[in-house]
Here is the input.
Amino acid sequence: MLRLASRQAVGFLRSATYSSASSSPGGLSDEMRKKIDGIVKKDDVVVFMKGTQQEPACGFSRNVKLVLDFHNVKFRDYNVLTDQELREGVKVYSEWPTIPQVYVKGEFVGGCDILVSMHKDGEISDFLDEKGIPNKYGSGGSK
Amino acid sequence: MSTLSEGPVARLLREKLTASFQPKHLEVECESHLHNVPKGAEMHFRVQVVSDAFEGKRVIERHRLVNTCLSEELASTVHALRIDAIPTSKWDGQKQEESPTCRGGFGK
Here is the structure.
């Protein structure tokens, strides 16, 4: 039921998405899909955000950066404000309507609310340990 | 929380969330006044939904359920949505976090 509902959500997103020259089903061009695939696989922790990790341009993006910094997690940032196609592309790719978006080892984890709640509930260290990401408070991490 | 002064978008979000989740507790609040947008805009919201529908689900699944419920609005007028989706068994009156400070967002 959720899967069907997700497809419906993508359908709504599709109609509002920037359409590219060679669109495949899903409203995302093959080129963009490959590009995002490459991005999320290239680095262990990737954040699509507004602004950069040095200068976040949005409070939600900044919160994600703060959580990751707190746990000493290195991440690769992509500023969607300078790339409108990427900005719309990740929303379709992730089936997630907003920015920031966090990927760990190629898997979508969530946005600001989820990262902050994982941090507050103390879940984030275990999660990062499971994924093999060095982090400050995890059992295998660096101090 | 008074619903008398809420705008049409807030009211619509409230109706949709009520229909989808039959919540034990629901808060819908426009937060656009905290952001770099014209006065009266209804573009940024926080929703706190307490529902049996979230039992046994990971946080990302709970958020996806809310995103799906409000997908039409998210594809159009709603620019930002803060979600607190709590299974009924975990609810003890806790308040949703305050919004982080807007940093301009380049106006959108």
About this structure: The domain at 26-90 of chain B is CATH 3.30.300.90 (GMP Synthetase; Chain A, domain 3). The longest strand of chain B covers residues 44-51. Chain B has three helices and three strands. The longest helix of chain B spans residues 8-21.
